[in-house]
Task: inverse folding
């Protein structure tokens, strides 16, 4: 084989290893914030199997923030009937055992301007890829990392084109490792992944006419709790195909478990699909593909080392029940991207990046334990799973929208979480949002256009000012004139951002003479009470949040 020596070193501010859901979301957000970035992905294209089909309200807020909500919703509508039920059955044609949701957005419609929805990664990832590339991101598919070395000023990464064998060297300020559950970069960094272990599973992609079996039911996710098979279904829009993910299969005579890590014959796959469907033994079933995978639950002991950051499955893994895995990865991207942009663009000190681990690791650990508890709890009566150590369940909306961060990127934040601590959560309906939590969705009107408070938070810090907070608005304008990236909005019934005074006071906890400093990810960073000495107090809050003196940010 001919040797391919690297050409001269290329440069990019941020290199992202992994071009699936989390890597592409990170790339898109960085591009939106004006940061050039390069994605390296070993596969030759985006996802070819329909994984991670459920996306939560917070994730859809991120996609709205990134400018792709509408195209994602359009694509989703072509794949699934939205807002269906999540149900447990003995088989599709058999007894219905429990409805977890009659409709997936039931009870949470007013918590966000965006709904939960279903879309596969097959449909989603090309949208994220194209949007990021349109804004200047560089994506290298079919390319693998063969070496990575960091020093005090950056990271040198060697990559190789899998087809041509050509090697290249890329120098970046930072690297985001979104290279999956078996992350080679995490292993090279010596970061372990403690957790609950893993179990072999299999997903069968199949074709069958399920029109009569489904009937008039709008079913989004169907958990199968058959005496001999545990798993779940998702079906295509036309009810002519779908996939069955199987957690375990039990022999009814011996009680033994099938080895799902071993090869599965087509005849076995057909029999298992028919069992889960509960259909006749001669019902035509076509097997399109059989994929082996592991259900695991773990959280990395660190989310960064030096200039390299873990995101998505490289940082945490969790069972598919509840759909938390991909959504938690998008939350990583949302948290990290604005911080990288602020440092790369010279608006914050490098210390800001310390808050990524401080915030996301406790939040991810909490979500891992909740996802594992859902997985074990739903199958406890039909498995050997020991449920004694399961986390106490938290409401889904609290996990989705109510995580409370503690970090050095929050002015006046409570003490940091300990290494093994899970993040606190709050009811997103609760009044007076605390520092470290997501700003609630409050409907607002700006220039006659109906929007959300979340539409105010773009790529810069934002100051929400009460109706009598002229001193805060003036202080924010002074800082903006000095070059500090800060936007200010007066909010109230008669203000430029129109919202009911009661909602401003109760949901946001914003007094008429006060101010709220909100980060680009929609998290409350600081609350200013009263208007005295506004300029000094605001400058000090910015210095604390951004880990840099304001003079250096200008």
Result:
């Amino acid at each position: 084989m001919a040797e391919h020596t690297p050409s001269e070193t290329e440069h990019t501010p941020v290199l992202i290893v992994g071009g699936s859901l989390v890597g592409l979301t990170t790339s898109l957000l960085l591009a939106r914030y004006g940061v050039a970035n390069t994605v390296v992905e070993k596969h030759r294209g985006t996802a070819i199997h329909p994984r991670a089909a459920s996306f939560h309200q917070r994730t859809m807020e991120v996609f709205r923030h990134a400018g792709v909500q509408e195209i994602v919703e359009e694509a989703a509508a072509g794949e699934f009937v939205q807002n269906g039920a999540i149900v447990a059955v003995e088989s599709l044609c058999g007894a219905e055992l429990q409805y977890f949701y009659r409709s997936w957005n039931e009870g949470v419609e007013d918590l966000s301007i965006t709904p939960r929805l279903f879309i596969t990664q097959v449909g989603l990832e090309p949208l994220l890829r194209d949007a990021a590339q349109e804004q200047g991101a560089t994506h290298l598919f079919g390319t693998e990392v063969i070496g990575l070395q960091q020093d005090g000023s950056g990271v040198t990464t060697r990559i190789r084109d899998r087809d041509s064998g050509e090697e290249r060297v890329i120098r970046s300020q930072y690297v985001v490792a979104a290279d999956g559950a078996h992350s080679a970069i995490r292993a090279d960094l010596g970061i372990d992944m403690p957790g609950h272990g893993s179990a072999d599973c299999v997903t069968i992609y199949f074709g069958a006419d399920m029109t009569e079996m489904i009937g008039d039911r709008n079913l989004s996710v169907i958990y199968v709790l058959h005496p001999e098979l545990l798993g779940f279904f998702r079906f295509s829009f036309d009810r002519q195909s779908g996939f069955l993910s199987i957690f375990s299969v039990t022999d009814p005579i011996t009680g033994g478990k099938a080895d799902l890590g071993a090869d599965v014959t087509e005849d076995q796959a057909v029999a298992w699909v028919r069992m889960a469907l509960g259909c006749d033994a001669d019902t035509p079933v076509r097997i399109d593909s059989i994929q082996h995978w592991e259900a695991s639950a773990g959280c990395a002991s660190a989310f960064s080392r030096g200039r390299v950051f873990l995101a998505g499955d490289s940082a945490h893994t969790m069972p598919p029940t509840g759909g938390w895995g991909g959504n938690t990865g998008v939350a990583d991207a949302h948290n990290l991207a604005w911080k990288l942009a602020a440092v790369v663009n010279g608006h914050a000190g490098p210390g800001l990046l310390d808050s990524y681990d401080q915030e996301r690791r406790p939040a991810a650990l909490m979500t891992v334990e909740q996802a594992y508890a859902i997985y074990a709890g739903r199958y406890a009566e039909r498995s050997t799973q020991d449920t004694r150590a399961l986390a106490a369940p938290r409401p889904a909306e609290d996990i989705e929208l109510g995580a409370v961060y503690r970090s050095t990127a929050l002015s006046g934040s409570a003490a940091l979480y300990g290494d093994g601590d899970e993040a606190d959560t709050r009811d997103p309906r609760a009044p007076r949002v605390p520092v470290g939590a997501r700003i609630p969705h409050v409907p607002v009107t700006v220039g006659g256009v109906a929007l959300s408070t979340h539409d105010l938070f773009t790529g810069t810090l934002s100051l929400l000012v009460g109706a009598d907070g002229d001193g805060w608005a003036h202080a924010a304008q002074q800082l903006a004139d000095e070059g500090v990236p800060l936007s200010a909005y007066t909010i109230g019934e008669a203000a430029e951002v129109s919202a009911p005074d009661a909602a401003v006071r109760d949901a946001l906890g914003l007094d008429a003479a006060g101010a709220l400093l909100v980060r680009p990810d929609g998290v409350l960073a600081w609350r200013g009470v009263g208007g005295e000495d506004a300029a000094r107090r605001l400058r000090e809050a910015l210095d604390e949040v951004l880990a840099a003196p304001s003079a250096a940010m200008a």
